Structure formats: C-alpha cells, structure tokens
Amino acid sequence: MNPKHQPQLTTDDVQTLDNVFGQHRLPPLTRRALLATAAGAAVAAGVPGIASAANSDSAMEIGTAAVTAEALAVTYLSNLIKKGGHAFPTPVQNVLKAANQAEQDHYEALHGLGFKPLTTKFWIPNAAFNPKNAAPIIEYLESVFVNAYLIGTTAFAGAGQANFARYTVEIGAVEAEHRTLARALQGKLGDNLAFSSYTVKTIPEIVSAIEKLGIGFGKRANVPGRFFSYRGPLPGTTVALATDKPDQAAA
Amino acid sequence: MSKQNDARPFASADDVQTLENALADTSTSPRSRAWLLRRAAIGAGVAAAATPLGRALAKTAADTPQDVGTTAVTAEALAVTYLTELIGRLGSKLGKAERPLKAANQSEQDHYMFLKGAGFTPLTTRFWIPDAAFEPTKVAATIEVLETVFVNAYLIGTTVFANAKSDTLARYAAEICGVEAEHRTLARQLQGKLPDDLAYESYKVKTLSEIVAELKAAGIGFGQQGSKPGAFYTYNGTTSSTVVALDNNAPDQSVAFPVPSLVGVKGATHTAKAPQKMPRGNPVLTG
Q1: A91-123 residue pLDDT tens
Q2: DSSP readout, B79-108?
Q3: What is the pLDDT of residues B77-126, one digit of tens each?
Q4: CB pair distance less than 8 Å for B170 and A167
Q5: Dist CA B195 CA B84 (whole Å)
Q6: Rounded Cα gap, residues B110 and B266, in angstroms
Q7: Which of A192, A200, B38, B205 has the most CB atoms in a 10 Å sphere around its CB?
Q8: What pLDDT was estimated at residue B262?
Q9: What are residue B127's DSSP bridge partners?
C-alpha cells in the first residue's frame, strides 16, 4: 500500500483509544518493550502523540498482536507461493496471491497506525510448505485470525471507537473469506457457519493457538522447520485487489 | 421500531455483568446461560442508545441500534425468502452451488431467528423479487450483489453499536458480517471471478436508508412492487429441503479451531486431501 493511503490517527484518536483500552483487561506484556515499540512506531509512522499515549498495555497488545500476525501471514504465504505455488492450479495460485496481498495491506495499515510487530522472525514448520497441507493450515490460521479480530472489535466497540471497531470487521470478514476458500479447497462445505466463531476471548489465547501449529514467534518451535523473516511479499506472490485500505468503496 | 422493544425493561451493562456472574454460580445450562446473556446484552445495548448520550452517539452515525436491528431482520427475511424460493425451484439444477446455497439459507434463517428472538420485527415480510434473480445464469451475480450490500449493512451496524459502546452487539454484527462476506466470496467463485478480491470489506454507503436504496436499485420491493419485472414472495421460513445443517446457529458459539492433519508430520492421524481445482465458470446449469 502506498503510504499516502494509510489511515492516520490523530493525537486525540490515539489518546482516546489508549485511555479507554486501559480499561480492557488483558494479561500484560513487558511494559518497557511495549513503550519502546510504540516510540519506535511513532517515529516510523510520523504519528504525533502515540508514544506519549503508550501507557496502556492492552491497547498496544491488540494492535501489536494483529500486526505480528499479519507479518506472519505474509511471510508464510510468500514463501508457500514461491516454493510450492506451481503445484496449484492457476485459479488457486491467484487466490493465494490475493490473500497475500490482503495480509500485506492489513500489515501496512496497522503499521501506519503506529503498531509494530513484536518479531518479524518466525519459525515455520517444514510441513506447512507441502502443498497438500496448505489449505488445512490456512483454514486453521484464518479461523484464529477471524477470532482475533472479533476480540479487537469487542475491545474497540467497548471503548466507543466506532471507526476502529469497523476497521477490525472490514479486516476480519476478509479473513473469513480466506477461511471459507481454504475449506472449499479441501472439498469441505465452505460456508459451514451461521456466525463467525468466537472461540477464545484473549490475545494470549490467540498466540497460543498459533503456536500449537508449530509456529514460533522469534524462537524455535518443537517441530521440524526453520526461521523465515518478514520482508514484505516476495516478488510474484501477489495480485492487485479492489481495495487496499479501510473504508474504501469497491465498485 | 416496535413498541415491544420500546417497552422492554432494559438492563445496563453492569446488569449484564451481574447476571453473568450470577449465572456462573448456578447450575444453569450453558445454552440457557448463553441465551439469557444474549438477550440481556441486547437490552443493554438498545437501552444505551435510548439514553441522551446514546441518542447523541447514534445521531452521529445517523442510524440507531433499533434501526439496525429492524433493517437487519428485514434483510434476513428477504434473503431467506429469495433463497428458499430459488433452491425450491432449481434444486439439483444448481449443481455445485446447491449445497453452499442451502448452507447460506440456513445461516440467513439463523440470523433472522436470532434477531427476531432479540425483539426486532421486520418492517415487512412481503418482498417483490425480480424474475431475473431466478434465472440460473444470474443467480450467483444476484447473490454477490445482495451479500455485498449485507456486508455493508453490518459494517454500519458495527459502527452504530460501537458508537453506543455496545461491544457485545458490535461483535454479533461482526460475526454475522463475516458470514455474509463468506457468501459473497463463494458467489464470486461460482462466477469464475477472483473470489478474494478485497483487502478490506467495502464500506460504500454509510446509512441504512442507502442500504435500502441499494436493494431497491436491484429491483427489490419491500412490501411494494419493485422497479423490475417480478412477483411478490412472502417470508415463510425455510423448508427442510432448502437447508443443510451448520456448525453453529447463534452468536458467540464456540467452534473448535480446525486442527489440521498434515502430510509428512509424525503423528498425523490421516492424510490431508490434495488441493482441488477451484470451481470455475458458472456451475449453475442453464437447463
């Protein structure tokens, strides 16, 4: 996404966001690390006020988890398409490339809002790159991502932050689309739910769910694999989409 | 909005929490507990908008939580009416689309039942639907249009509920919105289009009146004749032959994350299926 397209927080937005999220109970992360993250992000994003507003672990925790998850998604999808993309029919390759572009657009919007991933180095299991495993793994990850954004919606809505709440739905529903396509790819009923599933209620549970897949956030996991670093989408691993930022009107 | 909602003794958010705490200390079944909490949360959410602050917040978004509920339950009734008639008419002629359409019909009915159970009443249950919407070659495109509008509507709903700080209702809207987006992407897939063509769901219109206008522009009439040749259809729920069972049917129901069985991983219980070709073209038969 072009930086000029990135949604910007005003100082008031950030302060309000932070104040209200201070009331949202989530297990704390290292305060020093979060403050450093926020300060760094403020410089990178050029958003005045975010560093001074970073006095709430919960606000940062949600955004940080989201941008980290998006970095993981881009890292995985880019390498999957690069390594095994040829194993898929062209329409499937395009679906994967579209998903990769979407995750990158999410990453850039979140990063532009001042959130910075806790790590850009991921341990990914070797088995995840077997083309036969791709659809089940994507279904699992997208199910977790949908749940994560429902947590975000809940938190932002509770804070009265309507725009941010809507952004989480705009992203979460796209993750749901990826989920249903991954199911269809396995021959499952794609639209098997009447309501997107809200299985876990906290960000640490989201992280735990991802780690159960054998993914490590900056550390080795207990399954054969190797480290991959986020470098944005690899060349040839994306396609153009009809929207690339929140609140756009697709034709 | 119906007087039924206006007259309800609303619970506050604190009341909901108290209720949840109390229920947790009792032997109430999880299903009953969930139902009670959903009802209480809806009452609290609508009550928030009934306060001066709530009205002010709702005003900034143009629509109120009650507007959202009424519009949503009407739209869900329309969806069920259309899909039930469509599946009943075309049945197996729908080909690969039959099962996903039956699933979609069940989910729209679940949305309707939930909203109705929460006290919202559709503005009408009689809809003018264009004849073209039942032409096999136009079914997927019709559904894509409708689902795109529904996604937009629930984004408005989330916004309205969030303005009222009704976090539970905002999440319910999100849970439904995600499913409508899934229908949208499957409808695109059925047409041979790139199904996941968006990074963010489209937020084209910002008010519920515009949502209704979008549907009317598609030729649909709400209790009155629409702008295109068609006929009236009345909501009568679903029939057993027009739905399939789903994995959940109410908000906040937990469906376990689908732990994958992987190829080439020690301990995998069975082999994952090889990737299949994405359906291309329009699988709806033209016969």
Answers
A1: 999 999 999 999 999 999 999 999 999 999 999
A2: HHHHHHHHHHHHGGGGGGGHHHHHHHHHHH
A3: 999 999 999 999 999 999 999 999 999 999 999 999 999 999 999 999 99
A4: no
A5: 24
A6: 40
A7: A192
A8: 78
A9: B222, B233
Tell me the nearest-neighbour CA distance from B5 into chain A, angstroms.
22
Dihedral angle, C-alpha B235, B240, B244, B250, nearest 10 °: 60
Is pLDDT of A129 > 70?
A: yes
- Report how far residue B48's alpha carbon sits from residue B11's, in angstroms, rounded to the nearest whole number: 9
Locus of tokens 């849970």: B175
What's the pTM?
Answer: 0.80
Q: Does the ipTM surpass 0.90?
A: no
**What separation, in Å, do the N-terminal and C-terminal C-alpha atoms of chain A show?**
19
pLDDT at A24 over 90: no
Secondary structure E strands in B29-154: 126-130
Buried b (16+ CB within 10 A) or exposed e, A173-187: bbbbbbbbbbbbbbe
Spell out which residues of chain A touch residue B195, defining contact as CB-CB under 8 Å: 95, 177, 181
pLDDT value, residue A61: 86
Q: The tokens of B227 are what?
A: 């702008």
Regions of chain B with pLDDT less than 70: 1-61, 265-287
Query: Is there a contact between B197 and A178 (Cβ–Cβ < 8 Å)?
Result: no
For residue B42 the two structure tokens come to 């809806």
Residue of B nearest to A249 (CA): B204
pLDDT at A60: 77
Nearest residue to A98 (alpha-carbon basis) of A114, A86, A84, A81: A81
Strand partners, B222: B127
CB hemisphere CA count around B257 (13 angstroms): 25
CA distance A71 to chain B (A): 15
Residue B111, classed as helix, strand or coil, is helix
Query: Chain centroid to CA A37: how far?
Result: 17
Task: Reply yes or no on whether the pLDDT at A151 is more than 80.
Answer: yes
Chain B residues in contact with A167 (beta carbon < 8 A): 200
Residue A160 in this model has a pLDDT that exceeds 60 = yes
